[in-house]
Amino acid sequence: GVSLEVAGAVGVAICVATTLASRRTPTHSTDPLAHEVFLEWGTAVLQWIIGYRKKCNDLPVRSTVEPDYLRALVPAAAPEVGEPWQDIMKDMDRVILPGLTHWEAASRFFAYFKPHSAYPAVLGELVCAGINVMGFDWIASPACTELECLVLDWLGQLLNLPPRLLPFGPGPGGAVIQGSAGEATIVVLLAAAVAKAKVTTGAGASSARRDRMVVYCSDQTHAIVQKACMVLGIGHLRQIATTASNNWSLPAEALAAAIAADRLGDGLEPVACVATLGSTTSCAFDNVPEIAAVCRAEGLWLHIDAAYGGAYACLDELSEQFRGLELVDSFVVNCHKKLLVPFDLSALYLADRRPVLDALSLQPEYLRNDASDSNSVVDFEHWQMPLGRRFRALKLWFLLRSLGAARVREHLRNGVTLRERFVQYVVAHPQLELAAPPSLALCCFRLVDQGDEAQMAFLRRINADGKCFIIHSKLGGRVILRLACGGLEQRPEDIDMAWSFIRAAIPA
C-alpha cells in the first residue's frame, strides 16, 4: 500500500498543479455585468465609435431606408437569454448604421446647424452614465450640483456674459443646465406668467388668466416659443413680421405698437418677449438694446434665445452683435450645437432666479433634508420641470479642461472662415445669389430669378446621391437654401467638395 506520507504529498502536488494551471488558463467571465467584460466591450465600443467617425465621411450622408425598415431586421420580442456582445455589435453595423443620417460627416453634412461632439465630452457622457447619480438636490450628490454651478460660471465668463447672469456673480442671478432651449423657454415663460399673475392679481398662479396673456417674438423666432405657449396655456403669441430691409430682425417699434394694441385695444396682458441671437433660417440677430428698452418700459420679461448664436459671444470681434445682455432677464445657449458637447446640454442663465423658484418649487416630505432646509445650498430640482437630473456638467467640464478656451474660440472662428470661403463661390457664380447677409457659419443662397419649384428641384439634385446634405427654409415667403459650416473638424477641402456638388446641380 501507499503510505500516508506519500498520499499526502501526492495530494499537495495535485493541488499545486491545479492552481498553477488555473493561473495559466484563467476562467473568463461572459457575464455582461462583470467588470472585466465591461472593460473588454467598453474598449470595443470606443473602437467602434472611432471607426464610425472615420468612415462616416465615405457613406451616403442621408439614410436611404424605407419607413418601418427596422422591424423586419430584429426579433419581435426581447431575447429570453442574453446574447453575446459580438452579436450586438455586429447588429450596430447590420441594423443601426443603415438607418443613420451621419451628422458627424464633416465633408458631407451641412444641414440644419452643424452639431459637434468632441471626444473629451463624449467621455464625460460615459462617466456620467457610469457613476449614475441623480442630482436633483444638493444632498443627492453635492459634486453634481457644485460642479454645475462652477462650469456654468466658467462658460458664462468664456461667453463674456454680464456678471449679473453668472452663478457666482453679484445679485440674485444664477444658471442651470436644461435639456434643450425648448425646455428653457417653457421654464422662463412659466416664471414670467406666474410673476405677472402675482403682480396683476395679488394672487398665486392658480388664479392667473393665462388665456389673456401675450408673448411676443418675431416671425423668425424658433417654433419652440409657440410650443411653450401651447404647453403653458398662454393664450396669445404675437409673431411680428420681419423684412429684408432690417435683416429679418425684430423691429422694436413694431413690438411697442403690438404691445400697446393688445393692452389698450383688446385688454390683454403682455407678459414676455423672446428675442433671438442667431435665428434658425438665416442666423439673424435681433437688436437687444432697443428691444430691452421697450420691455423695461412695458414691464415684460425679456428672454434671449441664443441657442445657436450664443456660442459666438466668446469672440471679441463679434462683440457688437451681443450688446445689451446686461439688460435681459434670461439667456439660453445650446452647448450641443457649437460648443462641442454631445446632446443634451442647454445652459440657461437668469438675472434673477427667484421667479423661477417661485414658479417651480415644491418640497414633499420625502425630499426634505437639513441642507435644503438651511437655504445654504442650491437644489436644481426647483429650477426645471422634471425632478431627476443627470450629471451633465461633466461633459462641459471635460471639454473645457481638455481643449481650453483658446481652442474653443479657434473652433468657432474656423466655422466663420469656412463660411466665408463658400460665400466667395456663391457670389462669383452668375446663376446664384445670396438670400440673406451671411452670418456666423451660415450662408443662405438661391438661384437667381427662379421660383420656389425650381429652388426645391435644385435642392433635390444637390442631395440626390448622398454626397452632400443641405436643407431649405423660407424668407419673406420665398424658398432659400442653407449651408451651415462646422468648425475644427472641417477643412477648406470639405467646402470645396460641397461646392462641386452644388455647382454640378445648377441647371444649365
Describe this structure in words.
With 508 residues, the protein is of the alpha/beta class. 43% of the residues lie in helices and 12% in strands. The chain has helices at residues 4-24, 35-55, 85-96, 119-131, 142-158, 181-201, 224-232, 252-265, 288-298, 335-338, 354-360, 370-373, 393-428, 452-463, 492-505, and strands at 174-178, 213-218, 236-240, 269-276, 301-305, 330-334, 346-350, 432-434, 442-447, 471-475, 478-484. The strands form 2 sheets. Strands 1-7-6-5-4-2-3 form a 7-stranded mixed β-sheet, with helices on both faces. Helix 7 (224-232) links the parallel strand 2 (213-218) and strand 3. Helix 5 runs parallel beside helix 13. The chain is globular, with a radius of gyration of 28 Å. Residues 1-14, 16-22 and 203-207 have low confidence and may be disordered.
SSE diagram, text form:
Elements lengths: L3 H21 L10 H21 L29 H12 L22 H13 L10 H17 L15 E5 L2 H21 L11 E6 L5 H9 L3 E5 L11 H14 L3 E8 L11 H11 L2 E5 L24 E5 H4 L7 E5 L3 H7 L9 H4 L19 H36 L3 E3 L7 E6 L4 H12 L7 E5 L2 E7 L7 H14 L3
Parallel strand pairs: 2-3, 2-4, 4-5, 5-6
Antiparallel strand pairs: 1-7, 6-7, 8-9, 9-11, 10-11
